[in-house]
Structure prediction request, 197 residues.
Amino acid sequence: MKKLLALFAFSFFGLCTQLTAQDFSIGPKLGVSQGNISVSNGEYESGSSKLGYHIGAFVRMGGNALYLQPEVLYVNTGGEITKTNGADEQKFEASFNRLDIPVMLGFKLGNIFRIQGGPVGSFLLNSKFSEELQSDPMPDYKKSTLGYQAGIGLDIANMIIDLKYEGSLSKQAESIAGLETDQRQNQLILSLGLRLF
Prediction:
């Protein structure tokens, strides 16, 4: 995983050096997200979504049509997992605090509209799972995962508004209570950035 993240970082750094620095912006970014956990297993399945938030900073560099926008964000997200056992149903809530580093490659459509997409590296700072499952083996969440983000954006004066979908390219965890699963985090993200210059 570390080699894959390093490969993406070097590839985008190479692209960054090739972009003409006609536009350079830096500033804070914050927003909200609606996240869920996709679970592939007969006994466990996805439950309700969880409202989360993120805060951090972005840098944008590029030309009139093509730009690169790396970000560093502190993210609080999670989701609900449902366990079905006959007529009984149990709900478990997972919460994650992460450091996310998305690197968006975007295309400007005029002066306002944008489309963008790219990889995101996520580094788990800590996780919490519902106390109801404390007696069972806890999910072993990975310290780092690789995903992707894609979406649209608006540039209005010195504000940047992004609406993105995030999906996972790797498993976040492989088991719950000793039972094999494929857990992946998905999010719908709305954020606001402010260009300082």
In short: The CA atoms of residues 159 and 194 lie 5 Å apart. The two ends are 35 Å apart (CA to CA). The longest strand covers residues 88-109.
